[in-house]
Fold each of these.
Amino acid sequence: MTTTLFTGGRVRAHPEAAPADWLLCDDDTVVATGTTAETPAADRTIDLAGAVALPAFCDAHVHLPATGLYALGMDFRGEGSSSAIMNAFAARAKGGGGNGGGGGTGGLLFGGNFEDPLDRPLGAADLDAAVGGRTALLARADMHSCIVSSAVLEQLDLDGLAGVDLSEQGEPTGYLREQAAGRAWRWFESQLPAQEQRDAITAAAQLAYSKGVTTVHEMYVVEWRGWPSLDIVRDVAATSALDVVFYVATAEVARVVDMGFERIGGDFFLDGSFGSQTAWLSEPYDAPPPPGSPPRGIAYHTNEEVIELFGSAQAAGLQVGVHAIGDAAITQALDCWEAVAAAAGTEAVRALGHRIEHFECASDEHVRRAALLGLRASVQPAFDAFWGGEHGMYATRVGPRRAAGMNRFKTMLDGGLIVGAGSDSTVTPLDPWLQMAALRAHNLPGQSLSASDALFAHTVGSHRLAGGDARGSLEPSLKADVVVVDRDPLEVDPEALRGTEIIGTWASGRRVWPPGEAEAT
């Protein structure tokens, strides 16, 4: 048994509590906080040197394998030049190796995080010109679309799938969306050696620690990655100090129960994304998707299929998460939960605290209905920072009027919903400081949160999304998950949050950041 005292600075034990002067932990557990006048003795002391100790963060929506792969591969976030992207692929191809994680993927060339419109459209022909006859995949920032080379197209069975962009001659262009993109992701995953996947997950954990994150909710999409890779993610997570809460996107309830999981779904898709023009809407997009995709986006499942999943999971005692972005997808989720509640009882549904991921186009009525069912909102604040506003991507997709009804975090809180925050990494960076800044500086008037509510959403709120209602603070008997930073997030302007320095991160009482001082990995 080892006691650790954090002292010499400020301790924010809870977003809504007054600051303390010290924090005492016993191995992996918080013992107490208090004022300088009553500072206890301890086996070791961490001198804060004027810094601030906070509860470490929980990112409530991540994709660990992709996060690690992007950290190791070609990342085109913010790049608007098609030529620059193709030149990068050509240079990597000329070097003779792949880069789907480190070079050992049979020559597969991988890059991600591009956003369209680029200065000119890209397709398979462009990738072919850059890489010759090699396999190459370029992922859109939302991961719901990708562009593949002809060598990849030849590997995929895309017959009968929506989301295959077609040329004027009716031929696939190489730009794939939703289920078609899912086929490409599944093929891509099959090319990754197991060690490369392990390295990617380890890299993602180190990135999390560097931002003060010690808990993540892993949204494992079976459709994209298959079942074998899930075993790899679980094996790495079991040896890591990072607390990984799994949500497995599948309708196979019995299989999930047999694997010992307490949750199902997460990114179980009811629709797609706005960036790929596949979020399911009640009215068509202002600018229609390319030929090959429906004008109102893509619906993944019938109501009967969704009710079957919800009902089976409810009966098995599993918490359920679903991906619903467009207003039609959100309506489907609520209609289906109401049908299950009519059979199983509203209080039984409320007791499991099911969640909706993204919940972007939620109307006031949607919020009211969700609150009655006890549903929880898993939101990604940087979506608004990156794509909101009168001239942002949302407005170009559906017009300013409809865009003004999206990502209304304050409305969700005021409506009685439990709201937790995440990044959807790699869609936006795994960075709670970016997310908190976005919560406090919303593009929509009246939708910004206070500093304490923003911190709450990424600590207590995010843990509550997975049923961890007693986690996310540094109160006695809770886990000693601590981050020490150079500024108080409750006392700086939103724009100053992103410059925060992470001095140290502790997971269950063990230091995990920086690497040179880490006691665990």
Amino acid sequence: MASKGAIIVVKKEKDTHFLATQGFSKEINPSDLFKDLNKKKEQNLFYINEKNTSINNKIKEDLKKQKIKILIPLFHKQDLLGVFCIGNKFMNQSFTDLDVKIMSIISSHLTKALYNHHLIKELDSKKREISLKLLELETLFDISVAISSVLNVDELSEDVLWRSVGILNASKGMLLIQKKDNLILEPISTFNWDEEKSLISKKLKVFQEIKGNKKGLFLVEKDKTTLQKKLKESNLIITPLQVKNKTLGYMVLCNKETRKGVEEFNSLDLDLLMALSNQAAVAMENAALFKDITKEKNFNESILSSIATGVITINILGEIDSINSAGLKILKKEKEDIIGNHYMYLFEKDEEIIELIIKTETKNEKNKIVNIPFLSVSEETRINFSTSPRVDKDKKIKGSVLAIEDITDVSKIKKTFKRYVSKQVVEKLLEDDAKLNLGGEKREVTVLFSDIRGFTSMSEKMEPEKVVSTLNSYFSLMIDIVFKNNGTLDKIIGDELMIVFGAPTSSKDDTERAVKTAIEMQDKIKTFNKQQIIENEKPIKVGIGINKGLVVSGNIGSKELMDYTVIGDTVNLGARLCSAAGPDEIITSDSVWFETKKTFNYKKLKPIKVKGKRSEVQVYKIQK
């Protein structure tokens, strides 16, 4: 029967707020009260009718002004979670011992509830942190394995840059190397950056700050640094390539691309790029060391040349005395089950491998066999296997070095490509594996995006089975046309198709075939719609956008889940041209028009504004 009450909780260390209030104005400033109670750490401290002597006079006066008659601190062990305040009873009645007992019970339950709430929030927060950290570690592990296999500094810098661009979906990037006794940073690898670049000094304030803090940073439009002005870009993220206390150079990425346009980089992007840069710096340092080591000894060359694969060493008796982590992963065994055993036990199901090792032991020569089944692991596993004599500094034979390269994924990729590209393209790839660059490469392609207009709203009125059936029939017709014109199906996103001409193999008429494909697709849709009308179904309308330009193509993702695709500003513009195309329209960029204007009829349209572009883009519509 009290006239007012309030529950005030501690939100952070020095931050409090009203969890609930009735009758009290929120003008109460409980900071001094919490400070006083925290000092006392008394869990059974009550203030009743101004009789409690354990609260100082100033606090008493504050409570008296607010007409607080009962004050109960909510302690969990030594932690003050909040306070429970009760005002006067109606009719100026006094509080009884029973009232106090009831409030004590209520406050005890409230304390437990608040504590449990804090625990749940903290658990959820930790769970999210762990999930993000696990994803980051898995990504970094896969990348570190990939880049550790590249022992040429130039190739490595290209590999590191395009992987970084792919992970953060940046539109541009470059690696700058710091040369001794030279103030100018040298770009050793660039992506989508113009050939003519400003001279960038390592004495710029941005680089000095990074070097001092040993941590990267990201810049936004409001920063207006000298580096931003020199590069003529607002959104940048820069990380150092450092090994211990040595800075090798810097990675600079520009413009985080999304479907909504360019976004600013954030702290999570910075953490991920820092970890990748650290891995890259170590790999680059190792690559430089490897270059020197290979000049000294053939033995080191045989070991380090296969460092990215499984490496096993056996002694003169044929017993295994070491194996690297890659070897354990390929063999799918624990280290304890391998070390000390004879190699015949390890390769008991693979006679070819055993014969190769015996040949090396007897003739003291290197031997190699490629693309063989590795039955000791599984029937599906395929490997390249090599053996080399193991010698000491005095050239005495001490055993053998075995190298296992798992090529199972390469075989799977070849099979998988048959589902995504035309038969002619697959045959070319199988004839020459060098045409399939698993590490990624820059190349000029033509990209085609097609999208069903209004399909989302249309599908809401259809049965789920009918939606799937309609899409399957539509996609089947469209993909047949794509494969007939030797296009590569990159991906299907909802009702949208992304098609590439020029990757993984290219021809002089890639752009012409892309336009021809678009026209045939629109013609086939008209036939498809006639059948839809006969079946009393709604016809569909499709918009198509085509663009041509430079991209990075390759397998992007992790070892567990990878996707052969193309990335870059060319792809983003192609998607936005598709969005700008109306029903039954084919919209192309200036580069496509210029390449095919003598073959097809075009209508020049007004330039349009697209996200991610400062100036308007000239577009053309194909006239049938």
Amino acid sequence: MKLTFIGADHEVTGSCHYIEAGGKHMLVDYGMEQGQNLFENAELPVAAAEIDYVFLTHAHIDHSGLLPLLAQKGFRGRIYATVATAELVDIMLRDSAHIQMFEAEWRNRKGRRQKDTPEYVPLYTMEDADLAIKLLTQVEYGEIVEVAEGIRVRFTDVGHLLGSAAIEIWLTEEGITRKIVFSGDIGNMNQPILKDPAVIDEADYCVIESTYGDRLHPVQKYDYVSELTEVIQRTFDRGGNVVIPSFAVGRTQELLYFIREIKARELISGHGDFPVYVDSPLAVEATQIFNKNSLNCFDEEAMELIRKGVNPISFHGLKLAITPEESRAINFDETPKVIISAAGMCDAGRIRHHLKHNLWRDECTILFVGYQAVGTLGRVLVEGADEVKLFGEEIGVRAEIRQMTGLSGHADKNGLLNWMRGFKKKPEQVFVVHGEDKVTEIFAQSLRDEFGVEAYAPFSGTRYDLLRGIFEYEAKAMPAAKRKKAQKTVNTVFGRLLVAGERLMALIHRAEHWANKDIARFADQISSLCDKWEK
């Protein structure tokens, strides 16, 4: 019964934890790293084909984004997620695959104009994403699911994103049961649309995030509507656009919630029924999924609007840009407008085109409404860059750069501590992950000082024996090597053969407990196949 830390250790993104228990191999999340990569992640201890289950806390790409790669490498187990998470992952992994393939096509087209440039291979394809999506198994909040003998799981709402959950896992081995809880990303209190995080009674071990583990949100209830009104009014009065880089899933829907109220209360003067563009096919699909899951996930305030016949995330003047042509047309309309576009950290997507058209205009405002990871264009702009490069062109930054600091999908230090206080039985050991390097250590110390619990911030590769309650291996910081801009050319056909071989070996290991006659028949079939190709 072992826990190994793989990703989002002393880093904010790339969440992944590996569990081995009862002869099964499991992952909690398998996310993509975003922004600057400070430390090398340990490899998975087993081949992808040997992974039996993935338990997914929520749909954000830094928690789910490498599932297609896992499937590409031979994973054929089950991915357990809440209903809403499964529906969001369906669209988000396809969107991620599209971005991967588009970037590869663009790099290779550019590379063909240069001598001896190696082919850039996408991390994964749409086919890989489709395969991962087919492996999803939907579960309801609060339902205890026995996934295998000695392994039970339950998903509990933590209010970070539609469908987000803390995951309770009961593991039984050698007649002894241990319970480990993975917090996932814990939501902020009193946020629009979603319920506040629910707490969990007890656990032997807890793995908790620490994104904002060193800071506090404003004490008073933040007036998002007033701040957004002020930004829109001032920008429109000087003839500019309000451009909002926003995460397509979660943050965009919150913004629509606020703008609906601004319009309903007629808080913007002199600009009529101003247009609001959502320029993201992913955001449009995600909004539909939010509406579909309102009964299970929305808080009482949002449900009260629904009972009155009001859609809390829609309004007159809302325009949806789906096609590239519709997206391009937005920047040829001189009417002051609000443009909400992905990606939220400006590292990809249509938002980069809107920045190119609006950053140099001093009458415009670029309004950031979410966390900006180190190394992203969003972080560069927030930190005051005078000039940035977009599509090979240097763009002067003359627009007003603003940040809504109160708007956060993550609990702050007190929110995280309050969630921990929900345990009636304190965990024997708490592991602090999913935070910037120094923040993980600061929050681990806070847990020791203020909560009186053993807390440790592991580096990737650290291994813990859950049965005996001891560290088997404590990894040290391994600085990440600089990555090359282009991936090496790979023989994808031979790569498929290697993956097939790993799947075969994983199946052979599982065959140990089959009936003898089935093992014998399987062995004969493999031998026959070898005889055929050896000829």
